[in-house]
Amino acid sequence: MKIILLLAAVLLPVAGVMAQPDMPSEHARKTFEIFRTIIEVDTSKAMGNTPKVAQFLADELVEAGFPPSDVEVLRKNDLAALIVRYRGDGSSGEKPILFLGHMDVVEAYAKDWERPPFELTLDETNFYGRGTTDNKFGIAQLTATFIRLKQEGFVPTRDLILAFSGDEESGMITTRMLAYDRPDLAQAEFALNSDAGGGDLDRNGKAITYNIQAAEKTYATWDITVRNPGGHSSRPREDNAIYDLADAIGKIQEYQFPVRYSDMTLAYFRETGEQRGGELGDAMLQFANDPGDEVAAARLAKESSYIGTTRTTCVVTMLKAGHAENALPQSATATVNCRIFPGVSVADIERVLREAHEAGLEPPSEREWAERLGTTLEHLQDLLAHLKREDRMVRTPGDLWFEAAAVAALRERILAHFESHDRLDTPAYKALIGTTRRTAVPLMEYFDDEHLTARSGDSRVLRAK
Q1: Residue 187 CA neighbour count, 13 Å, CB half
Q2: H/E element holding 353?
Q3: Which of 305, 321, 340 is the last residue of a domain?
Q4: Residue 242 is part of which domain span?
Q5: Nearest to 380 by CA among 341, 344, 425
Q6: Which CATH number fits the domain that encloses residue 246?
Q7: What is the pLDDT of residues 315-340, one digit of tens each?
Q8: Domain match, 410 and 392 both
Q9: How many helices (H) and strands (E) would you count in the chain?
Q10: Please, what sign has the CA dihedral across residues 396, 398, 402, 408?
Q11: 167: nearest Cα among 99, 56, 77, 35
């Protein structure tokens, strides 16, 4: 713990991405020099420049006194990772501590920026440039701190290890290499990640909280593709792949996932709300005291920094459509990136949805479903409840679960039936949906509860609108 406290103490004088035009110490000067140098190297995935940054950092550390044998630049094709071991005297008898970061950044196009993305600029408040927070400030901060400690003759009581990956924002090839090909790193007692948590300041620059990340949302990306026969632009069709995709995108934009929370997130909002105060702080406190408060949840959802702490989010990030300006598009694709609230497995959700889709209107019982998936009944019920909140599954009387899309399609068939019939009896209902009485009756009762139909003797009639 003494080591961690010392590292925190030497990290604090260089504040986040708040601009510091006066450099009062050699440590601050060195941190700024490293920060500026690595910001001005484009390390997005297509450039192949992470080896350049890794070698620059390695040279700085060797020059500061680290033995070359303890500074490793690991190449992987046009990528690189960096491992630096700060050897301790072993007096604590404890395993090493890992300090993590990533040297790469997401692509940035100068034409889209008001300032040059790969040149460190500043005003009276902030630094600007791609990676100033994610994650090159963390990289500069950790590297400069290791340099300072080495030059001051500090000897830790256990080994301290820097482990910087080179493609966290894309393929994560070097991340997997560090995780799976270096068993020595896996022996660490714990890791501190510079790409998570961080300080929170008010508008006057006063420190409010210092956040420690305890869990991470699951990252998942899907492509939505609409296909169409196409044709020549001089002969437009009523249907169009781009228009159809635009409709789907609009629905994604309008949809908000249900509020989710944990004891951890409620405690976070309670503490942060008390420190922050004001209208936003009040909303945090209201949410912490009652997560069902829709007004408070809606207020937090307006803040990009906090919406992800209250729910799963999905957003369209890329588009691809058409092949010629004078041709009707035969396909249009939107890339949707989702960050799924902790505790919900993407793989489990996909398995449930696939089973539901294949089952159609003849789903198994909950117990049979759990046995098929090789999971517990309680876990399956949690997954189904999550999917119901997201309007992807429907629960009927009798505890049967159906894919929402299948139920929506059945609803349209029922409405079509009533265009030419006044009543719908059980045999006709079974024939209409092609199922047995086991599922037909619960579905009939479901549509009664939804006020689509009403029971009249042994038949159903369409409710008046």
Answers
A1: 11
A2: helix 346-359
A3: 340
A4: 218-340
A5: 344
A6: 3.30.70.360
A7: 999 999 999 999 999 999 999 998 88
A8: yes
A9: 16, 19
A10: negative
A11: 77
The structural domain count of the chain equals 3
The answer to whether residue 204 is domain-embedded is no
Q: Are residues 232 and 371 in the same domain?
A: no
Residue 152 tokens read as: 């001051």
d(C-alpha 242, C-alpha 227), whole Å: 9
* Domain co-membership, 271 together with 405: no
Q: Among 145, 160, 195, identify where a domain stops.
A: 195
DSSP for 172-214, please give it.
Answer: -HHHHHHHHS-HHHHT-SEEEETTS-EEEE-TTS-EEEEE---
Q: Residue 21 sits in a domain of what CATH number?
A: 3.40.630.10
**Per the structure block, which two tokens stand in for 447?**
């549509």
| 134 and 270 inside one domain | no
Q: Are residues 376 and 333 in the same domain?
A: no
- 258 located within any domain: yes
Helix (H) or strand (E) segment spanning residue 391: none
Nearest residue to 256 via CA among 393, 383, 390? 390
Region of residue 377 (left: phi > 0; alpha: psi -120 to 50; beta: else): alpha
What is the C-alpha end-to-end distance of the chain, expressed in Å? 68
Partnered with residue 316 across adjacent β-strands are 336
- Against a cut of 0.70, is the pTM above it? no
Q: What CATH number is associated with residue 398?
A: 1.10.10.10
Alpha-carbon span 276 to 180, nearest angstrom = 42
Q: What average pLDDT score do residues 375-395 get? A: 83
**What digits encode the pLDDT tens for the residues 444-457?**
899 999 999 999 88
C-alpha pair distances (Å), 144 with each of 29, 30, 64, 426: 9, 6, 10, 76
User: Would you state the torsion angle of the CA atoms of residues 49, 55, 58, 62, taken in this order, to the nearest 10 degrees?
Assistant: -160
Examine the domain organization and report whether 6 and 60 are in the same domain. Answer: yes
- In angstroms, the Cα distances linking 374 to 219, 348, 379 are 24, 11, 10
- 254-312 pLDDT, tens digit each: 888 888 888 999 999 999 999 888 999 999 999 999 998 999 999 999 999 899 999 88
Dihedral angle over CA of 30, 32, 37, 38, nearest 10: 110
